[in-house]
Each structure stands twice: as structure tokens, then as C-alpha cells.
Specification:
This is Flagellar hook-basal body complex protein FliE. The protein has about 100 residues and is mainly α. It is built from 3 helices and no strands. It is elongated and about 80 Å long.
Length: about 100
């Protein structure tokens, strides 16, 4: 057996735990990227809902202009963040498509 292959296998085995979740991180079904994306999506929708409620209240004369401007700014920030994330995902996808197979 080639000693270089043995060393490579040993180094791979030593590096493998680095890819596992750190102790204390949530594990199991429904945890991880999918759960995080679900939380972000629900936060995004909640920001929109709150902005709409404040806008309706302002149209009815029940909210002041300051709260309306603040709600609109939060909604604008959420949209800009979503567009930035979308652009990064599209850019990563295009980069993957350019990779030689």
C-alpha cells in the first residue's frame, strides 16, 4: 500500500469532524437551512404586514406620519435585503453553470 494514500485517508478522517455541526447547535429534521429560510421568509412577510397596517391606519387618520415613514423605511430595507440575497443566489447559480464538468 502506498504511504501517501494512507496519509491522505488519515488526514481526511481528521478533517471530517470539522464539517459536522458544533456541539449545542440544533440538529434533527426541520433544523438547519430550511428552518432558517422559513424564519427569514416569515419575518419578511411580517414586516410587509406591519407596513400595510400602519399605512391603512395613516389613511384613516389613526397613525402619525412618523410611524408611517418608519414602517415604510423598514419595508424598503426588507425589500432591498431580499433583492440583494436574490442577486447573490442568481450569481452563484450562474457561476455553477460556468464550471466545467
Amino acid at each position: 500500500m502506498d504511504i501517501r494514500a494512507l496519509n491522505a485517508a488519515q488526514r481526511y478522517a481528521a478533517a471530517r469532524p470539522a464539517t459536522l455541526p458544533a456541539p449545542g447547535e440544533e440538529q434533527g429534521p426541520g433544523k438547519g437551512l430550511g428552518a432558517t429560510l422559513g424564519e427569514v421568509t416569515s419575518d419578511f412577510a411580517e414586516t410587509f404586514r406591519e407596513g400595510e397596517e400602519v399605512a391603512r391606519a395613516a389613511m384613516a387618520g389613526k397613525a402619525d406620519a412618523t410611524s408611517l415613514v418608519q414602517a415604510l423605511a423598514q419595508t424598503e430595507l426588507a425589500v432591498e435585503a431580499a433583492v440583494t440575497v436574490r442577486d447573490k443566489v442568481v450569481e452563484a447559480y450562474q457561476e455553477i453553470l460556468r464550471m466545467p464538468v
